[in-house]
Design brief:
By secondary structure, this protein is of the alpha+beta class. It has 9 helices and 10 strands. It has helices at 6-34, 100-128, 146-150, 169-177, 231-258, 269-282, 284-301, 310-323, 329-360, and strands at 39-54, 60-74, 138-141, 157-161, 164-165, 184-190, 193-199, 202-206, 211-215, 218-220.
Length: 361
């Protein structure tokens, strides 16, 4: 990455994270209002307020000093993590007093809004700038590299890798990059016949990513021009891209859980600032696409069943739906405090790791 000043990092981070967080919290806010729940605070950032105003509905709209997320605090909540107060059920317009399915809808609306934003940004780029699709067809194999040694040939069309459908060359590239020294099963079409071939991508250290990546040793077919899509085609393509990106994110989370994730795949706020500053310098279109990617990431991460995240709240409501009664408030509060502690600890760990990487690099 090029050398970036602190202003580049800060500006890139703010321009990236602010709309993503705002749309996420706006999803919660909009459905809460539809459910008749009063929103006391709508905050972009945490900590002391820098600027704010109170709307006619009584909501305090604020921008806070620590730009690492945001929250909506609804009537009856004890804190920004939506821990219910003991008297919340008796308060008119409280979140806890809303029906179970309304509460589930309010919580799910945040991640849903992030997916909608990501898809909308992808679609906007595809309609204005266009979309370049590189078919998953091998144009050339490089001698003495894994593809050639496994018997892949020019003209082979890759349709599946390890059970994952391949739509284009970028799908194939993404799976290869994340699989150094891992044997993958390729399903391909050659002369109208379907074949299965095992290929083991070669491991190669990438200086920019600071991690080992998989190398196949193939080149794509000649790249065509960008084609502008109509609204319907753009929406379909954007939704498909968002879905496949979600699959890749889930695979990455799986590697993290099993301990198979590399150090270079892990990054925190400083890493995001570094990437956003670099991409912002490359132009508005790459930055819009990065914003879409981060929005989809945020939506998916928030669905994890971790207390204090939206997925944790949905887990509580699922318990309530199955057992016909909510978890005791003391249990919910304890789990929330534990979830907040875990998230804060993880954030601090990632910040320290990012800073150490910058100094060591």
């Amino acid at each position: 990455m090029p050398d970036l000043g602190a202003a580049d990092l800060f500006l890139g981070f703010l321009l990236l994270i602010t709309p993503v967080v705002f749309i996420h919290e706006l999803g919660h806010y909009w459905v809460a209002r539809k459910a008749g729940v009063v929103v006391d605070v709508f905050s972009i950032g945490f900590g002391p307020e820098i600027f704010g105003w109170t709307s006619k509905t009584g909501t305090r709209w604020r921008i806070a000093s620590i730009p690492l997320g945001g929250f909506v605090k609804m009537r009856g909540d004890d804190d920004a993590a939506s821990t219910p107060a003991s008297s919340a059920h008796q308060q008119i317009g409280s979140f806890a007093g809303a029906g179970l399915y309304w509460r589930m809808a309010i919580v799910a609306a945040g991640p849903a809004a992030n997916f909608i934003l990501g898809i909308a940004l992808f679609a906007a780029v595809y309609m204005t700038v266009g979309k370049q699709v590189i078919p998953a067809v091998i144009g050339e194999t490089i001698p003495d590299m894994p593809a050639a040694e496994a018997g892949l040939q020019p003209g082979d069309k890759i349709i599946e890798i390890d059970g994952i459908g391949i739509r284009n060359f970028d799908d194939m590239r993404g799976l290869i990059v994340e699989s150094p020294d891992k044997t993958l099963q390729f399903v391909l079409l050659r002369d109208g016949q379907q074949l299965t071939v095992d290929v083991t991508p070669q491991s190669q250290f990438n200086e920019q990513l600071q991690m080992n990546v998989g190398i196949l040793g193939v080149k794509s077919m000649p790249v065509g021009e960008f084609n502008r899509l109509g609204p319907g085609s753009a929406a379909v393509a954007a939704t498909s891209d968002a879905f496949h990106m979600s699959v890749m994110i889930v695979r990455g989370l799986g590697r993290a859980i099993t301990g198979d994730m590399q150090k270079g795949e892990v990054g925190g706020p400083v890493r995001i600032a570094e990437i956003s500053g670099t991409v912002l310098n490359q132009g508005i279109v790459p930055f819009i696409l990065l914003t879409a990617v981060i929005s989809i990431n945020l939506g998916l991460i928030n669905l994890l069943p971790v207390p204090a995240l939206d997925g944790g709240h949905l887990s509580f409501f699922l318990w309530e739906a199955i057992f016909r009664k909510p978890l005791p408030l003391a249990v919910q509060a304890g789990l929330m405090r534990g979830g907040i502690a875990i998230l804060l600890g993880l954030t601090m760990f990632l910040i320290v790791a990012d800073v150490m990487r910058l100094f060591n690099g």
